Amino acid sequence: METEINRLLAESNAKMDKIILLNEELLKWTRFDKKMKLKEFIQSTLTTDNEKIIYELTDGEMSTRDIEAKCKINQKTVSTYWQKWQTMGILERTEKYSGKRYRKICSLKELGIDIPQSKELIATEPKAQENQSDIKEDTAPSNIKE
């Protein structure tokens, strides 16, 4: 009787191990597929260096004013992008700072996307005028002030 119970337990454990391995394999390929789709989506969304820089600096700690000071990108532009990207699902609000800051869902580096140097680091390049023609004024978040 005890031998039969041990045999059944061993068979059950072997089947569970196989199920776990199959689930791990499925998870690996699902992550790969989703990561590739996310990369395509982010590449089609973040089309300028400014957008990539703003996105990459959005770590949940930096405010719009911090990003403005660091990169010479207008605070209102940063705020507008944050609102747009949060709606698209590539940023999430942080618990910190009463939900007024955002965090990217993953870094560009994790997706294999090149991260341009921030304007602060490119001292030899002339300062470009901020092009906001692709940002609709009515999408600017009026409730986010930092």
Overall, the morphology is: elongated
- What number is the mean pLDDT? 82
Amount of beta strand: under 5%
Strands in their spatial order, largest beta sheet: 1-2
Helical proportion? Answer: 40-55%
Our count of helices gives 4
Distance between the termini: 71 Å
Count of β-strands: 2
Give the SSE string.
HHHHEE
Q: Sheet bearing the most strands, described?
A: 2 strands, antiparallel
Class per helix and strand makeup:
mainly alpha
Q: Tell me the radius of gyration.
A: 23 Å
**Which residues sit in consecutive blocks of at least 5 with pLDDT less than 50?**
121-146
The structural domain count equals 2
Describe the structure.
By secondary structure, the protein is mostly helical. It is built from four helices and two strands. It folds into two domains: 1-45; 48-146, no CATH class. 51% of the residues lie in helices and 4% in strands. A hairpin with an 8-residue loop joins strand 1 and strand 2 (102-104). Helix 3 crosses helix 4 (75-88). The chain is elongated and about 75 Å long. Residues 121-146 have low confidence and may be disordered.
